[in-house]
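Protein modeling request. Please complete all fields; requests missing the sequence field cannot be processed.
Requester role: graduate student
Desired output: 3D structure, token encoding
Chains: 1
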Amino acid sequence: MMKRTIVFLALMGVALFSDARADYKDDIGFTALQLQLGGSLPTGTGVSVSQVEADLDFGPAIAYMPDVTDVAFSLDSITNATTSPAYASPNVSSHATMVGQLIYGSNAIASGVSSVTVYNANDWIVNQLRFGSGMAPLAQTRDVVNHSWVGTTGNAAADTEILQRLDSTVQQNDYVVSVGVNNGVGQERNLLASAYNVIGVGVSSGNHSSGTTIVDGPGRQVVDIVVPTANTSQATAVVSSASALLIQTARDSSWTTTQKDEAQKNQTIRAVLLAGATKDDLPSWSHSSDHPLDSVYGAGELNIQNSYNIMAAGEQSASPTATVASTGWDHGNITSTTTEQYHFTLQDPSSLAVALTWNASLTGGWTSLTTNLANLDLRLFTSSGTLIDESISTVDNSEYLWQQYLAAGDYYFVLSSASPTSTDYSLAWKAETVPEPGSFVLFGLGLGFLGYIACRRISCRTP
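Delivered output (463 residues):
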């Protein structure tokens, strides 16, 4: 018998349909990026998206499709890709419509996305991941997949299998997955933010479930990044849209084919988003060497202008002697017998964010998967070899450095691995000029949080 799957929506789409903050584009740097790029602004053109939705259960009919007649959509196609006959004729979901508007609608960051497939969440788990079947998941062909729902089977072993199957498809098919955490402070449900190879998304107010995982490698960070929206479903959609913009940026570049491919890798997109995140409106943001991301806010608040500029700076290779620019990214491979060095010069006092990401790998048969995680470390040194900062988590598949003030001078960061096998990684970094210490002016930090709305979780139809 197929295992029972239970999913819950991250928010009530009808009641909160109009609650997306109108100024979120200003807050995440999109308006500034529009001014910076003008007519050359990427819009996600040519990027394919899947939207996975839980049911809105307002009666006997199943509802998980966006309203394709909505004036916000001007797509070539929005296809119901759900395969089970039970979901063949779904009703329109206000939640799915809202999420779609923020991913690929005419006013979205990635308004140029032209092809979208939509799945019912339970059908996607059973017929795409093939949960409980003992068979390999189906190949995933979309560039970005959005999951604005949370849930659990009620069984830790079953939840672990679903997470492992998701991680395996990301590892094998290399696509970007954005997943929302639950609204409201409390224990996180297991699906899907507890996966390794995804981007976990919360809200800038901090009104979401946070902390660390409780299944398939307990103690890992759940939230990677936050967005200033009213709820996590909206925030997750914005991150998916930002990912589509970055993928088009890579495809439209003048880089080599290899560089374009490496720029689009899920690890690179994740690293670029984390390195571009800001902490300006998050006064309580903190981390430590063994917990590289803040337990509530992850790397900080999405800033698509920063992330675009990191991506556009191009790939820059590690070297024991040559220097890289103060902003950029790289995709490489590391073993336990090597270290990778990135030397750079700051002409002015600067802040510095560095994000290192890699995928967990899966081995074993489809009835007995094993998650394998390489142990990579990231350290920052002065040119004379003095250690400034380190990120050395033993359980996460990301490391993160953040320095609010570095004096002008020469520095380098070092990647190392304690794992016996080679590991592909992506690294992204951004330095930004800051005033000399003592010249900062603080303005009413935290006032922007007053307008956020707590969201109520509802349960949804399950098979």
